[in-house]
Structure formats: C-alpha cells, structure tokens
Amino acid sequence: MYLMQTRPTAKVGFMVPYGEWLKSTREKRGFSQRELSRRAEISQVMISRLEAGTVGASPEMAEKLADALEVSRAASLEA
After folding, report:
1. Is the pTM of the predicted complex or chain greater than 0.90?
2. Which among 27, 40, 57, 69 could disulfide-bond with 62, CB atoms 3.0 to 4.6 Å apart, if both were Cys?
3. What's the Cα-to-Cα distance from 49 to each of 12, 19, 54, 69, rounded to whole Å?
4. For residue 27, which of 49, 19, 6, 67 has the smallest C-alpha distance?
C-alpha cells in the first residue's frame, strides 16, 4: 500500500503533491530518474509513477528516496 501522495510545505495548509516534490528535488540534485533509481534501489518505472502521481510512496520507499536524495527524512516531509 502506497501512502504518501501529498506532503506539507512551509505554507500552512498548502500541500504539494509528493511527486512534484520528488521530481523537483531530484532535478535540483542533478540526478536522472535512472540515477535516483539506482541510489534508492527502486525501479525507474516506480520513480516515474511516483513523479507522475499515479502511485504514492510507502513510508519505507519515502525513507529510501530521502536517503538517496541526501535530504533528511523530516525535510522530505516539510520543505
């Protein structure tokens, strides 16, 4: 079951889709989907689906992605 489809931002009451945050953060780090897939040990197809918003991330998957993107797990939920 995939849970994380939106995440809070610094703006109170405003939610950014998890996929948008994931793609934006990945691009800021200069990673391709393939590179992020390798680092997080998650298929490239799943990265694509997460970014498109067709699936949400499980807590375990979100943890792997935060580690691969070199952001704190808390930052992946806040920024």
Report:
1. no
2. 57
3. 27, 8, 5, 17
4. 19
